[in-house]
């Protein structure tokens, strides 16, 4: 035990689950500052409702981790799930497949860009190169996400190669079968080949596609026609980068650190453009509503803003919301 470093010490700022104490209002150790609300450890309850309480009416909006105080963690904010691609035994199996780790630059760089609070790199699928294997993996990913995600929280899925297709199909299932709001899901598809049987079916899902110029593996694995590009369809943002590795991987390792340094600034710039365009639209609508309210006799200002954002493709995505804070 370290002297003077315990839960009741004034020299120690953190309490239960590593959350920062706020002793000014309710006294020492009686209030813990979580990201979205304050927790009272004396009664084991939050004294504000969960901002996502409407998504799980079966649970008390004031409860801590669905009343599992011994084994559960109160999750905060977005969680990003990373999905590896096809595993080919002839090329060395998993040893030659990019397997995401929390220490990778791609994980550390995408976390703030997507507005994530936590990351999860533990999901693994068989990696077989077949439609059936990818569809099965998508079902497994759905179960994994639902098990590891706090109900109501937005989701980020980052997939490399065919892992991107697994992520896309999983997102489709989450929306269709589990009633997850489409605009709460963000997908990043790295070097992902286009597949006819796997396409993002909801335009409100936020789909970011990142590809290398001249990626031969992506090209050969795509089911696109010669007149089409090899990227997955219905992307909101598409980024192309110059591969920095080459060799046997033929421009197909977008998650590698050297390649992340190539595409990450481009992605940030593109998101910033969308944020600025969205803000400009909102300001324009506010000015119009203020100066010419007679144009909107049956709508409030908020209703006009929401309608115009949807019409222009600026639905409230977690990426833009987080970047705009």
From TrEMBL:
It comes from the Bacteria. This is Fungal lipase-type domain-containing protein. Residues 132-194 form the Fungal lipase-type domain. SUPFAM superfamilies: alpha/beta-Hydrolases. GO terms for biological process: lipid metabolic process. InterPro entries: AB_hydrolase_fold, Fungal_lipase-type. It comes from Flavobacterium davisii.
